[in-house]
Specification:
Strands 1, 2, 3, 4, 5, 6, 7, 8, 9, 12 and 13 form an eleven-stranded mixed sheet that branches. This protein has a two-stranded antiparallel ribbon with strand order 10-11. The protein is 34% helix and 26% strand. It is α/β, with parallel strands linked by helices and 315 residues long. A hairpin with a 5-residue loop joins β12 and β13 (278-291). It is built from nine helices and 13 strands. α6 packs antiparallel against α8 (210-233).
């Protein structure tokens, strides 16, 4: 399983600096995205998964316009780290108040070491053990194949996001708690495409309705959570008094777990092998209450395999 990647929106016009940033992204598990200035806000208002925004100090036609762009980005997506790339000085002090309020970090163009440190601090600040990444992908592939027997299941490489947008109209939540992590697992999907995928001429899918879809997603969530629990969580951790409010804004398709930490994401692509109807299920792991991966332990593979197959039950 590859290390997680993250998408970054690059707001830069210089061809030379764009080429340098492309090479940097290729070397550091980043997927650089470029957008026309006129479409910037439209893109930010979509459900595109992003880890950060890189803004060149001369991106606008004037310093005032660049400051205005920074303010618009921060207003539209305040959870996204905004990194300003300057030509000479790695400081925000002589920039406008709008940029100082919006930006979380600054670097000098061409200083790869400086930008690398910022990326590690702002995007890849949580370390995910490879056994955890590989195991989640295996669990999702196994459960979804069982839940959607007529579909081919492909799980993409994991990725890191800072955005708080919701994907689709239906989502489920399960709490995760152990001595090494506390947080939530969330599945998200588009109702219409998931209904179309499930509405096959099989006994299980006769007269498919959205309530049945909710039951299917709940069962899928429970199966993934159960396999995750048996394989990774081990003994439950000592519950602390710490609680963080969760905010859901349906109109804005926004959900917040009250933390600045990035979220670990997996996307499963499901395709009906008969009708070729497809959909995607997005899984997010939000460790907003505790994250101590040095205490992470995977259950022995032989035992984990028996648990996942149903031959052995842990209780």
């Amino acid at each position: 399983m590859k290390d997680p990647v993250s998408k970054v929106l690059i707001l830069e016009e210089s061809p030379a600096r764009l080429q340098s940033l492309k090479q940097f992204c290729d070397k550091n598990a980043l997927v650089g995205l470029k957008v026309r200035r006129s479409s910037l806000l439209d893109v930010l208002r979509t459900n595109i998964d992003l880890g950060a925004v890189l803004l060149a100090e001369d991106y606008g036609d004037s310093p005032q316009q660049t400051a205005h762009i920074a303010k618009e980005i921060h207003t539209a997506r305040p959870e996204l780290p905004l990194i300003v790339c300057r030509q000479e000085r790695a400081t925000l002090e002589d920039l406008s108040d709008s940029i100082q309020r919006a930006a979380c970090a600054v670097c000098v163009a061409g200083d790869e070491d400086g930008l690398y440190r910022i990326i590690q601090e702002r995007i890849f600040c949580l370390i995910y053990p490879n056994a955890l990444l590989r195991g989640i992908a295996e669990i999702m592939r196994s459960v979804l194949t069982g839940q959607f027997p007529g579909a081919a299941v492909l799980v993409d490489s994991p990725y890191i996001v800072h955005d708080r947008g919701m994907v689709g109209e239906v989502f489920s939540l399960m709490q995760l708690e152990s001595n090494w992590c506390r947080g939530y697992m969330m599945l998200q999907a588009e109702e219409e495409s998931l209904l179309a995928l499930a509405d096959q001429p099989t006994e299980k899918a006769v007269a498919w309705k959205f309530r049945a879809l909710n039951d299917l997603l709940a069962e899928t969530t429970n199966l993934i959570w159960g396999a995750f629990k048996n394989r990774f969580l081990g003994s439950p951790g000592t519950a602390s008094g710490m609680r963080v409010p969760m905010i859901v804004n349906h109109k804005r398709k926004y959900i917040s777990f009250g933390t600045q930490n990035p979220q670990l994401c997996f996307r499963a692509n499901l395709t009906n092998t008969t009708t070729w109807i497809g959909t995607k299920i997005h899984a997010r792991f939000i460790f907003n209450l505790n994250w101590t991966p040095e205490e992470f332990q995977e259950a022995p593979r032989k035992l984990a395999g028996l648990v996942e197959s149903g031959e052995l039950e842990l209780f």
